[in-house]
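The freezer alarm interrupted the setup, so I double-checked each line after restarting. Inputs confirmed:
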Amino acid sequence: MEAGGVGLALQTRVAGFGTGRRRGGLQSPIGSLRVTDPARAAVAVRARGSKPVAPLRAKKSSGGHENLHNSVDEALLLKRKSEEVLFYLNGRCIYLVGMMGSGKSTVGKIMSEVLGYSFFDSDKLVEQAVGMPSVAQIFKVHSEAFFRDNESSVLRDLSSMRRLVVATGGGAVIRPVNWKYMKKGLSVWLDVPLDALARRIAKVGTASRPLLDQPSGDPYTMAFSKLSMLAEQRGDAYANADVRVSLEEIASKQGHDDVSKLTPTDIAMESLHKIESFVIEHAVDNAAGDSQAESQVQRIQTL
Ligand SMILES: Nc1ncnc2c1ncn2[C@@H]1O[C@H](COP(=O)(O)OP(=O)(O)OP(=O)(O)O)[C@@H](O)[C@H]1O
Ligand SMILES: O=C(O)C1=C[C@@H](O)[C@@H](O)[C@H](O)C1
Ligand SMILES: [Mg+2]
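Predicted 3D structure, all chains:
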C-alpha cells in the first residue's frame, strides 16, 4: 500500500521553480559556466530548427567532472541537441534510473537546465513528504518498506505532471507499480560499471546511502561488494527503461579506456541522443504512447 500523497507540495514547488531558464545567456545548473560571448550564443540560436549547421567542435580540457562542461562549445552543442529533442518530447517527463552513484542527480540537473524542464530528486521529495532530513534517517527510524511506500507515492504524484526531469531513487525500479508511473514519461537507465560506482561512492562516503553504509572496512571494497549484491538482486529491473545509456559504450566511442574520463555533459549529451532516437523510432502520439506504455507495464508486472 502506498503512503499519503505529496501532490500539493509538488504543485507548489513546481509553480515556484520556473523553467530552469536564466537571463543573460546560458548557464550551467550549478553556475559553473556562463556563456557571455554573444557571437557564440548567436550560433546556437541560428542552429535552432534550421538546416543542419556545421558541427561545433567540443574542446576537451583535462579537468575533472567539477567543470560540468569542458568548454563553451560543448555547452552549446548540448543546448542545440536539447532543442531538437524538445520538439519530439512534447512535454513528456524524463525519469533517470540507475544504481546509487550512477549520476542521476548530476546528469538530471544538466538535462533539466538545457531542456528548460524542472528538476526533481525523488529521494529529496520523500524526505520532504516524511518530514525527515535524510533517507538514511527514514530507513533507521521507520523502515525500508516505509521509504518504498513513500517513494511510490512521490512517483505517482510526479506522473501526472509534465516537463520534469526526475532523478529517481536507485531502488525505484524494483516495484512494478513505479514503472506504471514512470512509463507515463520516458525512462533513461544510466548504466555505469560497478567499479566506477564504488570509486565515486567511496570518494564521498556511504553515510547518506543506508544500503551501502558499513560500520567499518575499506570504503571502496565495501561499496563494491554491496553494489554487486544489489545489482544481482535487481537483475534486469533497470533494463525496463526505454533507453539505456552505457558509459562503457560512450567511453569506447570516444576512444577512452576508462569511463572516469567522461564528464556529466558527455553523459547528458548521449542521453539526449538516445532519447531522440527512441522517440523517433517509436513515433507515437501521446494517446498511442499511453496504450503502448500500458502494455509494457503489464509485461513488467507479469515477470
Ligand atoms: N560523470 C561523472 N564522473 C565522475 N563522478 C561523477 C560523475 N557523475 C556524478 N559523479 C559523482 O558521483 C557521485 C554520485 O553522483 P549522483 O549523486 O549524481 O548519483 P545518483 O545516481 O543521483 O546517486 P543516488 O542514487 O545515491 O542519489 C557524486 O559525488 C557525483 O559528483
Ligand atoms: O538503491 C537503492 O535502493 C537506494 C538508492 C537511493 O537513491 C535511496 O533511494 C535509498 O538509499 C535506496
Ligand atoms: Mg541522487
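Quick read of the result. The chain has 13 helices and five strands.
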